[in-house]
Design a protein that fits this description.
A seven-stranded mixed β-sheet has the order 5-2-1-6-7-9-8, with helices on both faces. Helix 3 runs parallel beside helix 4. It is of the alpha/beta class.
């Protein structure tokens, strides 16, 4: 039986930040099948529209969220700072306390900062100044901020909005979804392009 990874979405979620990770977890990498399956979680089961205009129906709402998931993956978007998003905070805190994998990219990292969930972990975001301004007194993790595309500290993965490939690789590694060389090879393929990745594999 496959293990469950929940992708947490808000209105106006970012289309470019999840497809590589979701497809790898759902469909596998090359000939390797994934031990995970992907479902979506939102505040309610009402339709959500992405920043690119795509409409989806979430699999679960916050009220019927299953308790047997392995990871939460928070995808960035334009409404993480809205009051409604705060409904996710207890679930996130509980998941982190239980040692589950939690990933957040782009403005979802700001949401975590606003809810005091980054303070004791190394992390990154779009900018430290924005994280501090939005987090106010709840964010005291300045000394743990890393100026990197994506950062993994234990079971927490954070990334800025341009780092969707680095985010994918770090979450896959955290989940031990595939052998490390497969994850790195797939990363190089989409980061540098088909021909450069082939040349790199032929002439390491």
């Amino acid at each position: 039986m496959k293990k469950l990874v929940l992708f947490v979405l808000v209105d106006e979620f970012a289309d470019h930040e999840y497809p590589f990770l979701a497809s790898s977890l759902q469909d596998g990498i090359k000939e390797l099948q994934s031990p995970y399956e992907v479902k979506t979680l939102a505040v309610s089961k009402d339709p959500l529209k992405s920043m690119g205009g795509f409409t989806i129906l979430p699999d679960y709402s916050i009220n019927d969220c299953p308790d047997d998931f392995s990871a939460l993956v928070l995808i960035g978007g334009n409404t993480w700072r809205d009051t409604k998003a705060k409904l996710f905070a207890p679930l996130l805190k509980d998941s982190m306390d239980k040692g589950r994998i939690v990933g957040a990219i782009c403005d979802a990292t700001v949401f975590m900062g606003m809810n005091a969930l980054l303070n004791t972990k190394k992390h990154t975001s779009n900018t430290l100044s924005d994280l501090m301004a939005a987090g106010k007194d709840s964010y005291t993790g300045q000394n743990n901020y890393q100026y990197e595309q994506a950062v993994r500290d234990g079971n927490l993965v954070t990334a800025n909005g341009s780092a969707y490939l680095e985010f994918t690789a770090e979450v896959l590694e955290a989940l031990d979804a595939f052998p490390l060389d497969y994850i790195q090879e797939d990363y190089r393929l989409y980061k540098f392009g088909y021909y450069e990745a082939i040349a790199s594999a032929t002439n390491p």
